[in-house]
Amino acid sequence: MTESSAATGPAFSTLPLADHVLANLQRLGYTQMTPIQAASLPLALAGKDLIAQAKTGSGKTAAFALPLLANLNPRHFGVQALVLCPTRELAEQVTQEIRRLARAEDNIKVLTLCGGATMKPQMASLAHGAHVVVGTPGRILDHLGRESLALDALNTLVLDEADRMLDMGFAEDIAAIVQRCPPVTKRQTLLFSATYPDDVAKLAARYLREPQEVRLAERIAATQIQQRFYEVTESERLHAVGLLLNHFRPESTLAFCNTKQQCRDLVAVLQAQGLVALELHGDLDQRDRDQVLVQFANRSCSVLVATDVAARGLDIAGLAAVINVDITPDVEVHVHRIGRTGRAGESGLVFNLASVDEMGRVGRIDAMQGRESVWHKLAELEADTAAGPLRPPMVTLQILGGRKEKIRPGDVMGALTKDMGFPGAAIGKIDVNDFSTYVAVQRDIADAALRKLNAGKVKGRSVKVRRL
Ligand code: ADP
Ligand code: MG
Question: Is the minimum distance from the CB of 9 to ligand 1 under 6 angstroms?
Fold first, then answer.
């Protein structure tokens, strides 16, 4: 756990969980509960419907996974729990976490059902029987329509990242799915969300029965997060981001804009300045989104530029800096943005660029924080000209070929170190996806590694490799 909302609550052993479940939690390194778990687990394990709100990375998955598993009858092979998630990426993360938490039970089958994968294998897996299904609304509805999925035996329904599902326009799909579930009196419904706007409250009112509300108001750890404000004109704003990056030289930065257009413009400006910046936006298809996130996580992209919607639910740890390129009108959103840095005792930098027109928003942030914002001047920012523009330490090489070609991380590591003689320390993260493998290598060996990989073999076969 890398977040600032660390697991500091009571021990899991205070909960009514079976001994083998507790032993498994111990093995996973889960000894104490996070605040949202401590607040929601006693209620959820008692069978109550629940609305739980807490920021990304606060441990919400276990807060619904443990109750859902407690409700299962492993001997009955029908779908007893359904978790709806906004994206495939999140559905896969949730599936993995449920599998880890279910390791103590024998033979709990957890199935992911998302778009972008072919229907046939999913239908075959369903025919074999699954206890838990995790998926995106569109695909779940598809299976219900074809009657490859039945929800008659359902006892737990989870709406995860409810705010984001609504943002993505899933309200009608959710309604259609809930209609196919047993009535509200015959199921437990758990709703999780990072934020709690009105439309989420309405959703809860429709599908939950006398829900208990667990909402963790966020407090900013004033000591850990250092916020700096810069006054800018509109014409200075995008350029100022590059000045900040070249002056403070954070290794990884998340830059928030209020609109997609602003994201696009900023990436163009940063790239023109020689910085490695990528945009994360809602219109990217899953493959491109994966590729962007891989590059950011493996340290070969300095700046990820995103809107709040695109960044929601991302579990990115260890951000050195957050830049609010635009000040958001919503104070709660501001708190979420800056909460992504300064985690686990590390110091985090937050930069805010505000125009005269945005001073009202800054005033509201000050009021919420109970302190005055600290202002600095753009003119103080000096680029370290000797060092040149900020560069990420790694470069990503994409090997065309992945899980489908049975490539494993060890194969790539072996080819680069044993066959080609690169030091292991120069090789970073290796991500194997279905059709592609991404390997991060240190910048100074990138060209040589690219050449040797293209000329050599991985797992006994020639491969095509390109630099991203
Ligand atoms: P959220 O859904 O709130 O964004 P997650 O459920 O994805 O958060 O949890 C974030 C990270 O914290 C995960 O890597 C998870 O394994 C870890 N984690 C969750 N609960 C605990 C705990 N009690 N102790 C230690 N680590 C935890
Ligand atoms: Mg989550």
Answer: no
